Amino acid sequence: MSANLTTNLFFTALLVFMGLYCMLVSRNLLRLLIGVEIVSKGVLLALVTAGQAVDKLGTAQGLAITMIVVEVVVIAVALGLVVRAYSAHGTLDVWKLNTLRG
Amino acid sequence: MNVHLFLLAALAFFSMCAVMADDLLKAAVSLGAASVALTLLFYEMAAPWAAVFELSVCAGLITVLFVSSINLIRGEERFLAESRHRFAALPLFAFCFAAGLWLFGDHVSATLLPARDGASDPGVGAALWSLRRRDILGQICMFLAGVLAIAAFFGPAKPAEKAVGAPATGCDMAREREDA
């Protein structure tokens, strides 16, 4: 159990940093959302790992299901925003979407 | 243990493919593959309900949403240049942080995780419907908010005649760039 816990923590941190790196280096709005997805995968792994470590896997799974539902709504709305932004500006480059800059 | 490690490595590999792929379509498919690896990992960790939701929603629905959105976008937007050199040190920092967690994971978990209280696990049904009933209400509110937002984005637009000399829309500009 302890070996599993530390290994899962290692990969959780790796996934969260991978997602943050993706969000930092990307100029494409869709790629930013892919970064958000990768971070959420790391958090899901941490949630189920914690539930397994304290013998409360049922509660952890309930929280994981809630998080997945929230995640899909967030991604669907964000993709809708991205498609609308593309139809309005003709680009997904975040450096060019500066029409609100003061 | 070997299967567990293999699935974790597959999850990290497909996530890295999603981050590093030049084509957005390949990135979306890699993200779906990472979701499948996480599903198998949840099964291996005896969490079947989380696995089923991960497979159906994350590996299925979200991948379909991404692929549909990518297909709505024209060719050159799929291959935007990225500014990786500005954050070149971040992967090294991330690996050091993760290795530190691996080395001191027991101490971290003893500090962060609550102690085992010996009470039996309530199970997913009791956890969702009795212990965390407000979460269900929150999920319903999120769904309604999401449906309203999508309806506002893609609902029927007001018919308006385009005036002569009106500024071109983003789609027109993209089409002109492509034609040129």
Describe the structure.
The complex is a heterodimer of chains A (102) and B (180). Chain A has 102 residues and is mainly α. Helices cover 80% and strands 0% of the residues of chain A. Chain A has 3 helices and no strands. In chain A, helix 1 runs antiparallel to helix 2 and helix 2 packs antiparallel against helix 3. Chain A is elongated, with a radius of gyration of 17 Å. The mean pLDDT of chain A is 87. Chain B is mostly helical. In chain B, helix 1 packs antiparallel against helix 2, helix 2 runs antiparallel to helix 3 and helix 6 packs across helix 7. The longest helix of chain B has 24 residues. At the A-B interface, helix 1, helix 2 and helix 3 of A face helix 1, helix 2, helix 3, helix 4 and helix 5 of B.
Topology of chain B as a string of helices (H) and strands (E): HHHHHHHH
Question: Roughly what percent helix of chain B?
Answer: over 70%
Give average pLDDT of chain A, whole number.
87
Number of helices of chain B: 8
Shape of chain A: elongated
What's the β-strand tally of chain B?
0
Kindly report the average pLDDT value of chain B.
80
How far apart are the first and last residues' alpha carbons of chain B, in Å?
57 Å
Concise overview:
With 102 residues, chain A is mainly alpha-helical. Chain A is built from three helices and no strands.
Q: Which helices and strands occur, and which strands form pairs?
A:
The complex is a heterodimer of chains A (102) and B (180).
Chain A: H1 2-25, H2 29-53, H3 57-89
Helix pairs in contact in A: 1-2, 2-3
Chain B: H1 2-20, H2 24-44, H3 48-71, H4 90-103, H5 105-112, H6 124-131, H7 133-154, H8 170-179
Helix pairs in contact in B: 1-2, 2-3, 6-7
Protein traits:
heterodimer, A: 102 residues, mainly alpha, B: 180 residues
